[in-house]
Amino acid sequence: MPDDPKSFFLGAEIAEYVVDHGTPPDDVQRWLIEETRSRVSDLAMMQISPEQGAFMQLLVRAIGARRAVEVGTFTGYSALSIARGLVDGGRLLCCDVSEEWTSLGREAWKRAGVDDRIDLVIAPAIETLRALPTDEPIDFVFIDADKPSYADYFEELLPRVRADGLLLIDNTLWGGAVIDESAQDENTLAIRAFNDLVARDDRVESAILPLGDGVTVLRKR
Fold first, then answer.
1. Is residue 219 helix, strand or coil?
2. 3 lies in a domain?
3. What does the alpha-carbon distance between residue 18 and residue 186 come to, in Å, rounded to a whole number?
4. What is the rounded CA–CA span in Å between residue 131 and residue 215?
């Protein structure tokens, strides 16, 4: 496991306890964690935390999700978690722009036996989302990509999500920078604007969870 907890407000010991007392990573997930650290060490913190993966898989399974969409796949840990939670015959569409990073994900999905339920599209995500049909309801969405585009991804996906479907948005606490007024960089400003947007949106009900780097859970009304 990584030495530094991705739930930035947790110390190492309590973070280890959280992972150990949930559904822990299996051999494939541990392999993917280690390979990500080895191959893309400078960006490994982009991978979701083990406890977040367990939470996502539980949610996907709990709502009986058949059709899911992920925006931002990186090395595939989140996609693996979502795919494992889908009902039999379920499909996950992954949107990313990196062949290099997602190639590691493809290997993990194959090892886990879920590669047959994942469709990966390498292209700008907004183009992929705009091409999605409007008459095939989506049950579950995970957004973890470029922060300035969060609002655009949300607006494209929400009309396609079924009533009572869920959307999870990652990094919405942004290491605590969301409340640091001295932080005025593009990503922080985008996260703040997105958080304000969904908090005012009466099409959804929402909660920000202090999990990983902050996860917003939205239920479409």
1. strand
2. no
3. 32
4. 27
